[in-house]
Write a structure and sequence with these properties.
The chain is an alpha+beta fold and about 170 residues long. The radius of gyration is 21 Å and the shape is flat.
Length: about 170
């Protein structure tokens, strides 16, 4: 009986090690991935084109954020498939920590965050269109979070698009 138990337990350990090795190999395969972006501003919208390179799988843009003051001066609206979602304590690593509450309040005061989903396919341009109400001269940055699932784990990465509106 003990011998059977040890054989089964040993088999489970071997399977777990194989799975962990597979997850690590998948994570290492995505080390070279990166997103490059270009932006264009016209009177009615900001268009950002993102290209995922060095990846062998699809990723997904799940969050977009930018400075509140800049966005409000442009009258920027979310791209299709995204909606406003302020941070909550559940988005932090330590919801019971007073510093987490301070971070949530400060971040929501200074930034606008949209949550949604857009696929990023390797080496394929993906466009994001942000309707705007005005083209206030100045510079801003739109930040993106993109991720992929690897087994029961995953990978989360970031890229930014710099926006510049010239005086006309």
């Amino acid at each position: 009986m003990l011998k059977s138990f040890l054989l089964i337990a040993g088999g489970i350990v071997v399977l777990a090690l194989i799975y962990v090795g597979w997850v690590i190999s998948q994570a290492l395969r995505s080390v070279d991935e990166k997103v490059s972006s270009t932006s264009k501003v016209d009177k009615s919208k900001i268009t950002i084109v993102a290209i995922l390179s060095g990846a062998d799988r699809e990723y997904e843009v799940t969050e977009i954020s930018f400075p509140r003051g800049w966005g409000e001066s442009m009258g920027i609206s979310s791209p299709i498939g995204y909606s406003a979602q302020p941070y909550t304590l559940a988005d932090t690593d330590a919801p019971e920590d007073p510093e987490s509450e301070s971070w949530v309040n400060e971040t929501n005061e200074k930034s606008i965050r949209w949550v949604g989903s857009t696929k990023l396919a390797p080496d394929h341009p993906t466009s994001f269109e942000f309707p705007i109400q005005s083209t206030t001269p100045g510079k801003g940055t739109i930040d993106f979070v993109y991720e992929t699932k690897i087994g029961i784990s995953g990978s989360i990465s970031f890229f930014s698009a710099d926006i510049e509106v010239d005086e006309t």
